[in-house]
Amino acid sequence: MPEPAKSAPKKGSKKAVTKTAAKGGKKRRKSRKESYAIYVYKVLKQVHPDTGISSKAMGIMNSFVNDIFERIAGESAMGIMNSFVNDIFERIAGEASRLAHYNKRSTITSREIQTAVRLLLPGELAKHAVSEGTKAVTKYTSSK
């Protein structure tokens, strides 16, 4: 005889899923929450062996460590982006310099920069870069 269907838990239910019997009779493990608590505790015991820490303070310390790691990750991502942008600028400047030299010119103008961008960047990206560059130059000259 089939068992009656169990009702689904209400949306927004705060109960934690503990070990429950699945179809094969196997128990599901409760998912682990990653934390730096054991490491914070080990460092605390090295520095102050006779001092304890409350769970609330441990939560604050865990949050602090997470924030620090997020900042480090953000800064390294910004470093990578800056490196990429500098590399592109150097390539454009080098190409513009060669173009001026080929045409026996001693000055790099916006025309050389524009041609260098068209040579270095692919298709649609070059079109957008040229249009944004033209817009920036127009804005600069009109503000003088």
From TrEMBL:
Family from the record: Belongs to the histone H2B family.
Single GO MF annotation: DNA binding
PROSITE patterns: HISTONE_H2B
Compositional bias per record (Basic residues), positions renumbered to this chain: 8-17
Location(s) in or outside the cell: Chromosome; Nucleus
Pfam family, one: Histone
InterPro entries: H2A/H2B/H3, Histone-fold, Histone_H2B, HISTONE_H2B_site
Name under which the protein is recorded: Histone H2B
SUBUNIT field: The nucleosome is a histone octamer containing two molecules each of H2A, H2B, H3 and H4 assembled in one H3-H4 heterotetramer and two H2A-H2B heterodimers. The octamer wraps approximately 147 bp of DNA.
Organism of origin: Cyprinus carpio carpio
